Amino acid sequence: EKQFPDGFKFGAATAAYQIEGGWDEDGKGLSIWDNFVHEAGNIVDDSTGDVACDSYHKYREDVAILKDLGVDIYRFSIAWSRIMPNGTPNEINQAGIDYYLNLIAELLLHDIEPIVTLYHWDLPQYLENLGGWLNPQIADYFGDYARVVFEHFGPYVKYWITLNEPLATCLSGYGGDSLAPAKGLVGDGTYQCAYNTIKAHAKAYRIYEKEFKQEQGGKVASNIPSPMFYSKTDSIEDIEARERAFEFNVGLYAHAIYRGNWPQIVIDRVANRSKLEGYSFSRLPQFTQEEIDYINGTFDYLTLNSYFSTIVEHTEEAPIGTPSIYSDQSTLSSSDPSWPTSASSWLVSDPPGIRYLLNYIQEKYNPGEIVITENGWSTVPGILNDEDRVTYLKGYLSNILDAVVEDGINVTGYTLWSLLDNFEWSQGYTQRFGIVDVDFESPNRTRTYKSSAEWYKRLIAARQIVD
Ligand SMILES: CCCCCCCCCCCCC/C=C/[C@@H](O)[C@@H](N)CO[C@@H]1O[C@H](CO)[C@H](O)[C@H](O)[C@H]1O
């Protein structure tokens, strides 16, 4: 049997808003998610993350579970407004700092390495009032936040992720309305947000590089979510459509960091359509040469979230009308009917896709090291015997193993999404991604292993795919 290499690290992932609760405790400030969930109609089951898994109080129990599973790494995020209530450095909340120091200490005590995300979608509301990710100064605010994080936690953390899935923030939060702050600015907002998130990431990277790296010796990267994109046919049109889909969804956030500037196809198409729409400038902001040089190369590794595959085909150019990133992109996406479906409309299982994708990403960005920071499966609530999740994970991990052993891709870690059932954003508690069930009806938020947790524990112990 093929073995995962010795240095390969297994783990699990969570995010602050989805598990912590304690939304207004001990001096924490409000985030855009605290406000979004309290507005009726935004979350399908009208639930909130006010308590969620109550990990703010139960983190020791979470770490005990991680220890029992035998993981090497745990990916979690810091809630910006828990340590800086309004997002600015003029007020630091010591109780928030202590919470994360205690969590990290508990992890290290059990030989579990933290991998820490600075921003997993919970922007301090005060910064949103200033324009959020559309405010050109947000990179400076993020830089100040990053500095506080590195100062306090840097001695204990070696792997940093600046922003989780900027694609989701920009496309669904500012371009669309399914994530907070639901701005719905599909033609302009997505690009301005992308521009600012890239500059914020680069700022944090450069601060670390200049002020902390020598002493702390850690690695910093942004986060890239990507499905495997297949072209529907071998026609030139569909192959080009597949490239466009990749560049408009992945390249928009990765190209400037790994190769310099936006992808050329995005520059050309948005400029062209903007002109036809009557704009005197491109809706895609331009990087100056100085910005390109500052951003290019701001990575020490690559973190990849990947769950599914999609089939892309060319579609006729949309008539000039309301500006939209979708018309700029001009592609259609579909699924293969043979791919098993989950409780989430977008999540289908295509295990070989992850191996193709890893090869594609390696060739395109040559990042040196890749950590898969999210991959997982959703079910409806209440299922402890989650055989479909085990089948999915087995297929994906087996293909990841082949990518490492057969293809020589330097994937050094894997943090499964998710350790616990948790608050699944606008889907509330209707979709469950945990390998550990959480009883959201009980005040104790009782945790119970699913079959997948038992299976993952055996896999980690064996360091090979197990039945
Ligand atoms: C990555 C998307 C590229 C778009 C390519 C077009 C293909 C069309 C299909 C559209 C589906 C879009 C919905 C995608 C959603 C996921 O990528 C997103 N939910 C992943 O975010 C992480 O998901 C976890 C489980 O949902 C978890 O909630 C975590 O917090 C997120 O980081």
Helix content: 40-55%
Q: How many DSSP H or I helices?
A: 16
Describe the main β-sheet briefly: 9 strands, parallel
- Distance N to C terminus: 12 Å
Assembly state here? Answer: single chain
Task: Give Rg in angstroms.
Answer: 21 Å
Average pLDDT, all residues: 98
Please report the total strand number as a whole number.
14
Strand order of the largest sheet: 5-4-3-2-1-12-11-8-6
- Taken from the alpha-carbon principal axes, the silhouette is globular
Reading the helices and strands in chain order gives EHHHEHHEHHEHHEEEHHHEEHEHEHEEEH
Q: Spans with pLDDT under 50 lasting ≥5 residues?
A: none
What structural class should be given to the helix and strand makeup?
Answer: alpha/beta
As a percent range, the share of strand residues is 5-15%
Bound molecules: ligand LN5MNCGP
